[in-house]
Amino acid sequence: MIFRCPICGEEFEEIGKSFVCKKNHLFDISSSGYVNLLPVHKANSKAPGDSEEMVSARRNFLSKGYYEPLMRGIIELISSRLPRSGIILDCGCGEGYYTAAMAEAFLERGANVYGVDISKTAVKKAAKRAKLVMEKTGNETVKQEENKSDKNKSDKSVEGRIDGKIKENAEEKIEERAEGRTEERIEKKFEGRTEEKNRGNPEGSVGEKTEGEIKVKAEEKHGEETVETVGTADFGSESFEVGDSGDVFFAVASVYDLPVNDESADVVTDVFSPLAISEYRRVLKNGGFFLYVVPGERHLIEMKSTLYDRPYENEFSMPDYDGFYYEKVEKISFPLIIEEKEDIMSLFNMTPYFWRTPREGVERLKGKSRLEDTAEFYIYLLRKSV
Ligand SMILES: C[S@@+](CC[C@H](N)C(=O)[O-])C[C@H]1O[C@@H](n2cnc3c(N)ncnc32)[C@H](O)[C@@H]1O
């Protein structure tokens, strides 16, 4: 368990259906399998993060597999780097499409996969999606058996400790009741200058801009999907034994104040979510990997041409992140052909364009029954310096 108490920072123990810290702060695990670790006084609004509408739009769109090439790219990059029984923390996990894919890929190696998002609606959906994966992979049955035997062992201590915690929480009035890739070689040169600035990320995250030296090397062709390797470093891979059973955990929490133990994760992922680099550095083990996905230059350029009179391209950059070095940068692009009006609008609703598009632009998009666009992403794979 890598989650820790958001109030005092003490480690958690899982007792019955609750997480309890040494100072007796208790957080219930919801029936759908997540825990709310965002104390009310730390939430900036009643329902922080993505709204129900945005979360449902993302669920609808991603479930139809439109971004599957990206998902496969993420899994491939993690696969050779995750140690046996390794720990993955998906920050800003949303409704859990990528978290569930990681669980499905790595549970049998004994991986523990954690997802965190500030939106309770998103986390609830993510926990339910992961439960289905657990059932599909047989891990749910193993977990239930383990729970039964743990319960027999510790019934007495549960009784005593939970009594105390409930009392304390009532006194503190803390609401902690939670329900959870053209064969082609390209060389690009940039000029080693770093300029820190916020960068608008069409999928919702905020980052920094840098110009540095970079080589674009090998690419492999898989149908129409293009994956470029932008700068590589050697790394070792481990062999895995099949048969361990891992687990999936979710929490409502902010990435800027992660209720996660120091140096506890082997891999931290952030797919289009706000970038909390110092927290990611803190929670990663030395030598751990940080996988960060941002939109490429021409990501959704057709949609933007419909929405705006002057669509812009995203800028590519490789910021310097203190305490990290680049292991690899991969560019994934593929054609995105959407032939359902509903899916076009789902895609729109899950992007920040949803918030900042003039009405006429939205009306133009609504009039479309087919969208032929480009999906383009960069996956930055960084490694925490030892
Ligand atoms: C563009 S979505 C990406 C979701 C998911 N990674 C995906 O690609 O499907 C960004 C997510 O970040 C979450 N978010 C925004 N601010 C956050 C914060 N401070 N801490 C944690 N999550 C946050 C939102 O609720 C939303 O689910």
Textual characterization of the structure:
The protein has helices at residues 52-63, 68-79, 97-106, 120-137, 139-172, 277-283, 301-307, 341-349, 353-356, 359-366; strands at residues 12-15, 18-21, 26-28, 34-36, 87-91, 112-117, 193-200, 206-211, 216-222, 225-232, 247-252, 265-271, 284-295, 324-338, 371-384. It is of the alpha/beta class. The strands form 3 sheets. The protein has a 10-stranded mixed β-sheet, with helices on both faces. A 3-stranded antiparallel β-sheet has the order 1-2-3. Helix 2 (68-79) packs across helix 3. The two termini are 23 Å apart. S-adenosylmethionine (SAM) binds next to helix 3.
The oligomeric state of the chains shown is single chain
Q: What structural class results from the helix and strand content?
A: alpha/beta
Number of helices: 10
Query: In CATH's first tier, which class applies?
Result: Alpha Beta
End-to-end separation in angstroms reads 23 Å
Shape, per Cα inertia axes:
globular
Number of strands: 15
Report the CATH architecture.
Answer: 3-Layer(aba) Sandwich
How is the largest sheet built, in terms of strand order? 4-11-6-5-12-13-15-14-10-9
Order of helices and strands: EEEEHHEHEHHEEEEEEHEHEHHHE
Q: Taking Cα atoms only, what radius of gyration do you get, to the nearest Å?
A: 21 Å
Biggest sheet, open or closed, and with what strands and sense?
10 strands, mixed
Mean pLDDT rating: 80
Q: Tell me the count of domains.
A: 1
Tell me the strand percentage band: 25-35%
The CATH superfamily is Vaccinia Virus protein VP39
Which small-molecule ligands are present, each listed once?
Answer: S-adenosylmethionine
Portion of residues within helices: 25-40%
CATH topology: Rossmann fold
Low-confidence stretches are: 152-202, 204-223, 232-243
